[in-house]
From TrEMBL, chain A:
<dbReference type="GO" id="GO:0005525">
    <property type="term" value="F:GTP binding"/>
</dbReference>
<dbReference type="InterPro" id="IPR027417">
    <property type="entry name" value="P-loop_NTPase"/>
</dbReference>
<keyword id="KW-0378">Hydrolase</keyword>
<keyword id="KW-0533">Nickel</keyword>
<protein>
    <submittedName>
        <fullName>[NiFe] hydrogenase nickel incorporation-associated protein HypB</fullName>
    </submittedName>
</protein>
<dbReference type="GO" id="GO:0016151">
    <property type="term" value="F:nickel cation binding"/>
</dbReference>
<dbReference type="InterPro" id="IPR003495">
    <property type="entry name" value="CobW/HypB/UreG_nucleotide-bd"/>
</dbReference>
<keyword id="KW-0479">Metal-binding</keyword>
<keyword id="KW-0547">Nucleotide-binding</keyword>
From TrEMBL, chain B:
<dbReference type="Pfam" id="PF01155">
    <property type="entry name" value="HypA"/>
</dbReference>
<comment type="function">
    <text>Involved in the maturation of [NiFe] hydrogenases. Required for nickel insertion into the metal center of the hydrogenase.</text>
</comment>
<keyword id="KW-0862">Zinc</keyword>
<protein>
    <recommendedName>
        <fullName>Hydrogenase maturation factor HypA</fullName>
    </recommendedName>
</protein>
<dbReference type="GO" id="GO:0008270">
    <property type="term" value="F:zinc ion binding"/>
</dbReference>
<dbReference type="InterPro" id="IPR000688">
    <property type="entry name" value="HypA/HybF"/>
</dbReference>
<keyword id="KW-0479">Metal-binding</keyword>
<dbReference type="GO" id="GO:0051604">
    <property type="term" value="P:protein maturation"/>
</dbReference>
<comment type="similarity">
    <text>Belongs to the HypA/HybF family.</text>
</comment>
Length: 227, 114
């Protein structure tokens, strides 16, 4: 028997499985009336602190909860629980990003109808999370002033998959000689027109503006169930 | 990095296609990779060799075609290609745009085998 080489032409997205699961999640979030935000940043940019504060801020008027992904510990979940919100931990082991399937498993037995906002804190990483849709409504990328002004230009893929930029730790800007204009120019070169919010968890600056923006975005998606 | 899980997904899909088509062995996989896919080509080659070991794709080669970012320029009303994603501007008239039409692909386009 002679074997003839053959070429089979196809066109299939390698991440199709994740995309299908993410689509199902998005439909579920939509049906439950819960606005879902995926937070991405490098390790140490201040995701957990920012999230603890935004959960506290929003919980005065809305029902909030969070899922947090981490390689090994439950420390972040414990910190987030200080806000009073319901928090679930996903421990990813060696996986450097969250996938739709992990989120689906974490949601098991959770009644999403009882929530207005669900935050998903991704694993600290500015590369890998870009490729994985989690079914979120909004993807927020956080950069701290201590990371320098050109960070956005080093990670164009992630910013280009994000909807909002949050500049964190602005109380430290002066101490680290952070050039705000240069940072904003870098963001603009990579993703023209993206909204940028500047916050400090320490002084509370900018948190109210960010919370209001989230509420507005939610009301836009779910106009019938405004609070 | 996530190239290992991308390589595994890619191999699973290629094997499924090969089996459907009655191939006994995979000799080559052709992939289209967008500049904004977030996948590092070199890391993917490395990961692919590892996941292919002991499978019907062992010793096969991975052929990657890199795809530029295609943006839509609101001023020219035309699609334009960018081989670097910075700055996000029309290369002809310099108008800024965030309207990305393609460049995020991680697509298998062909599986070769016997």
């Amino acid at each position: 028997m002679t074997l003839t080489p053959r070429i089979v032409e196809v066109r299939q997205n390698v991440l199709k499985k994740n995309d299908i699961l993410a689509r199902a999640l998005r439909e579920r979030f939509q049906a439950s009336g819960v606005y879902v935000v995926n937070l991405v940043s490098s390790p140490g940019a201040g995701k957990t602190t920012a999230l603890t504060h935004i959960l506290t801020e929003l919980s005065t008027s809305h029902r909030v909860a969070a899922i947090v992904g981490d390689l090994a510990t439950e420390n972040d979940a414990e910190r987030l629980r200080e806000s009073g919100a319901d928090v679930r931990q996903i421990t990813t082991g060696t996986v450097c990003h969250l996938e739709a399937q992990m989120v689906e498993e974490a949601l098991h037995g959770w009644s999403l109808d009882t929530l207005d906002f669900l935050f998903i804190e991704n694993v600290g990483n500015l590369v890998c999370p870009a490729s994985y849709d989690l079914g979120e409504h909004e993807r927020v990328v956080l950069f701290s002033v201590t990371e320098g002004e050109d960070k956005p230009e080093k990670y164009p893929t992630l910013i280009n998959s994000s909807d909002t930029v949050i500049m964190t730790k602005i109380d430290l800007a002066e101490a680290v000689d952070f050039n705000r204009e240069r940072f904003l120019r870098a963001v603009e070169r990579v993703r023209p027109g993206i909204a940028v919010y500047e916050i400090s968890a320490k002084t509370g600056a900018g948190l109210k503006e960010w919370a209001n923006r989230l509420i507005e975005a939610r009301n836009h998606i779910f106009p019938m169930v405004q609070n | 990095m996530h190239e290992l899980s991308i390589a595994q997904n890619m191999l699973d899909i290629a094997q499924e296609i090969a089996e459907e088509q009655g191939l006994l062995r995979i000799t080559q996989i052709h992939l289209r990779l967008g500049v904004l896919s977030g996948v590092v080509k070199e890391a993917l080659f490395f990961a692919y060799d590892i996941v292919a070991q002991g499978t019907m794709a062992e010793a096969s080669s991975l052929v990657i075609e890199e795809v530029p970012v295609v943006i839509f320029c609101p001023e020219c009303q035309e699609e334009r290609s960018l081989f670097r994603p910075i700055p996000m501007r029309c290369p002809v008239c310099q108008t800024k745009t965030a309207d990305i039409r393609s460049g995020r692909e991680i697509d298998i386009i062909a599986v070769e085998g016997v």
